[in-house]
Amino acid sequence: MPPSPPAQPGDAVAAIDTPALVVDLDAFERNLDLMSNAVRGSGLALRPHAKSHKCPEIARAQVERDAIGICCQKVAEAEVFVDAGIRDVLVTNEVVGAGKLRRLAAIARRATIGVLVDDAGSVAELSAAATAAGATLDVLVEVDVGAHRCGVPPGEPAARLATAIARAPGLRLRGIHAYHGAAQHLRTPAERCDAIAAAVRDAAASRAAIEAAGIGCAVVTGAGTGTWQHERDSGVYTELQPGSYVFMDADYGRNALAPDQHHFEHSLFVLTTVMSVAVRSQAVVDAGLKALAFDSGPPLVYGAPGLDFRRASDEHGVVAVTDTAIAPRRGDRLWLVPGHCDPTVNLHDWIVGVRGETVESVWAVAARGALA
């Protein structure tokens, strides 16, 4: 059982127990609406990535705003969202292991489930699991369009794998997955534009090779929060997968935006309390490595010029106080923007939604720790 939530609806924000993962609902809803409105009318589908939030309430809010379903990364995440009523889930990952394949096929009896492959051996294993379960799995060829992580080379290799999928019992070829994750945090608009232009060429070549083999390729899916406008306007992609846009984080905040690019707001914070000011020119807070992910750098101290989060241990965060800053006092609250939202969310059991000075909602991070 998860621990008790740090607040209850109706509580004052000042009463939230810290450290706590907090969402500014006004900014969060503006982010949701901005993305929904920007995709609506484009002819493309919006399938947000739920690995960012791991929360069924947020997935439902996205579906209510025209998302066709969600993405996730693991079978265990997909199980959580299907159990919560989400009926179209794409696992944007390869799934290996007999137990995971049985579980994936089982939920495909209750929802539309997609999965990626980049190896003919995976096609055979997925086919066996689906037929044994009496289910059908949607399958997409993962194409390496620049991330150099998973995926077959573009063009003919994608067509060969698509042919194997199309012939396999229990599988339905949906198209290709062409996500360039490494492009999302390229800092300048020109760098991101160039990277996605190359990805678009690779995706188009792969689709053309599949269609030349006499096979349909209805879906070309990909895109992230850093580049989605390029994929939307490419004329090649049919589906977009941004995830972090709902929250934004300090690392995405370092991306420069072109004048025509949409600006999403920081809505996710770790609320923390100053525990100690015993050492001159610093404050120690109760949020450290177990409350924040540091893979993309330290958090930003929001709305507090001159305060700089310098280092962390398990349960302590050290904030430097410059000569020009207003020095925090013991018991003060600081709002921290995580360096990377996805793994930070996975450290918490609850998301506290606040509007103004009041707690409005408390949501379970139901897919926390869903790693299998």
Produce the secondary structure layout:
Elements: E1 20-24, H1 25-39, E2 45-46, H2 56-64, E3 70-72, H3 75-83, E4 88-91, H4 98-107, E5 112-117, H5 120-133, E6 137-142, H6 156-167, E7 171-177, H7 189-212, E8 219-222, H8 228-232, E9 239-240, E10 268-276, E11 282-285, E12 300-301, E13 307-312, E14 317-321, E15 333-337, H9 341-345, E16 350-355, E17 358-364
Short descriptors:
single chain; 372 residues; alpha/beta; Lyase, Ornithine Decarboxylase, Chain A, domain 1; TIM Barrel; 2 domains; 9-stranded mixed sheet; 17 strands; 22% strand; globular
How is the biggest beta sheet arranged?
9 strands, mixed
Total strand segments: 17
Share of residues in strands: 15-25%
The CATH architecture of the largest domain can be given as: Alpha-Beta Barrel
Spell the H/E element sequence. Answer: EHEHEHEHEHEHEHEHEEEEEEEHEE
CATH H-level superfamily title of the largest domain: Alanine racemase
Q: In percent, how helical is the residue content? A: 25-40%
CATH class of the largest domain: Alpha Beta
